[in-house]
Amino acid sequence: MTTERRDRVRHWWERLLFSVRGRATVLTAVVSALILVLVFVLVMLLAGDRATNRVARKSERTAERIAFDITAGANREALTVKPDEAPLVQVVSPDGRVEAASEAAEGRPAFAQPRLKRHLLLIDERTCPPSLDDCVWVFGLRLGTSPWGEGVMVMAASPLPTPLDVWLLPVTTALVLAVLLALITWWTWYTLGRALVPVDRLRAELADVGAQGLDGRVTVPATAGETRALAETVNATLARLEEASNRERRFVSDASHDLRNPIAGLYMRLEVALDEPDDYPWKTMVRAAMADVRRLSDIVMDLLELSRLDARTPSIVEPVDLAELARREMGLSGGRVPIESRLEPGVVVAANTVRLGRVLANLLNNAERHAESRIRVTVARTGADAVVEVLDDGAGVPEESRERIFERFARLPESRSRDPQGTGLGLPIAREIAEIYGGSLRVADSPRGARFVLRLPLA
After folding, report:
1. FRET label pair with 21: which of 39, 45, 425, 453, CA 20 to 30 Å apart?
2. Total Cβ atoms within 10 A of residue 122
């Protein structure tokens, strides 16, 4: 066997045994074969039973007709049998002696000797007498009076069909069932193949999308059903992957840009310090370098926190009283502007205290950078949610930029002017934490300043 032929055989063998189409076809063929074998057996049993009944009825009609003729005075010399009747007819005395017989039964002993000794009135059975080559069905009637005396029995026997006599029926039935099995197997293979064509097309398109980029989409079939739902799910997954890829690309670009500035400043300061004379007062320069290192550390810490949030790293979940948490974070704030508060007690959520503390700290720091004269913090219960609002009286956030400020490294011009050392990661981290615990963080309308609304489900 050549290598190409061997590979082709292996290919088809794997398709039959390991593919969904092949396994379903083989299973259907096996189950159908078992059912058809059962059908074949039942057909043969019914056909055999029908043939036996036909022979038995022929013997019965022949015996009844001969008995009636004998009773009416006919058939005294010889037993005549019609062409459509049982050929073997005997008149047997109670002691088993054959008194008269048809031409085919002349010279043969009684067909049912043991039964005659029991003085039965009726015989209706299958028997295989040694004097005959085949088994026969015997039907016998006992007569009260006859030309041969009292108690004689008229017996008619018809040969039972042998397998050679009815070979056409099983062969025809087997051929029909074999063709039916082949048709079922082919139809299953063909139907499953047609049903899997959209899946194969979807697989090919998805492979092309993976090779060319995530911006491609697979074709959604016009018909409804599982294949259409699968294509829509694939497209939705590709859209999420493309969005995640683009966000990661922007994230890397922005992170590189924000990290490059403090690294360049630090490198420049260290380079200048090396060029100065030994008695140069270097402490001022070191302090500036320390500020750059501190900013680098803040960016790295924020990036690590975002990485943990993206990976959904588990943290301890406990009941958190938002009023107590807000009171603690307000006590740790810088104090540049006064903070007004309206804190409803007993507003408890299920979250991590450290992470929620970071959310409130980020919101308070943001409000303190932009506030003119005051900050207002509110904790309240609204239906099944806990709501925390942080409001400042600064310039506010333009409506078109309310979602952009939650993008990583996104900073508005005013934010850059008020806090040049900021990382642009505080608000994205706060929103990510809120969404992890089933809540939301957004900028709501307010008459003046920025109004941040944190909403979490109550514990």
Report:
1. 39
2. 13
User: At 148, is the secondary structure helix, strand, or coil?
Assistant: coil
Instruction: Cite the beta strand spans of 211-296 per DSSP E.
Output: none
Q: Where are the domains of the chain?
A: 1-212, 226-307, 314-457
Local structure of 273: helix, strand or coil? helix
Please identify, in words, the CATH class of the domain defined by 314-457.
alpha beta
Q: How confident is the model at residue 86 (pLDDT cuts 50, 70, 90)?
A: confident
Strand partners, 154: 91, 141
Q: What is the CATH number of domain 1-212?
A: 3.30.450.20
pLDDT digits (tens, 9 = 90+) for 164-199: 666 777 888 889 999 999 999 899 888 888 877 777
Which string of DSSP letters, residue by residue, matches 347-367?
-EEEE-HHHHHHHHHHHHHHH
Q: Go through the chain and tell me how many residues it has.
A: 459
Per the CB < 8 A criterion, the answer to whether 391 and 367 are in contact is: yes
Burial class of 334 by CB neighbour count within 10 A (0 to 12, 13 to 18, 19+) = exposed
The residue to which tokens 């939301």 are assigned: 440
Cβ atoms 343, 327 nearer than 8 A: yes
Residue tagged 């008269």 (tokens): 100
Work out the number of other CB atoms within 10 angstroms of the CB of residue 10.
Answer: 10
Tokens of 111: 């067909």
Distance from C-alpha of 164 to C-alpha of 10, rounded to nearest angstrom: 43
User: Residue 104, CB half-sphere, CA atoms under 13 Å: how many?
Assistant: 16
Token pair of 170 as six digits:
């099983």
- pLDDT of 43 above 80: yes
Residues 6 or more apart whose Cβ sits within 8 Å of residue 443: 397, 402, 405, 450, 451, 452, 453
Cα separation, 79 vs 83, in Å, equals: 13
Architecture of domain 226-307: Orthogonal Bundle (1.10)
260 CB-near residues (< 8 Å, 6+ apart): none
Measured distance CA(151)–CA(161) in Å, rounded: 31
- How high does pLDDT run on average in the chain? 80
Query: Which residues are within 8 A (CB) of 79 and not within 5 positions of it... i.e. 6 or more apart?
Result: 66, 89, 90, 91, 100, 101, 102
Q: Tokens for 281? A: 């007062």
In 3D space, the residue among 135, 97, 89 whose CA is nearest the CA of residue 116 turns out to be: 97
Structure letter (DSSP) for residue 191: H
Both tokens of residue 210?
């993976």
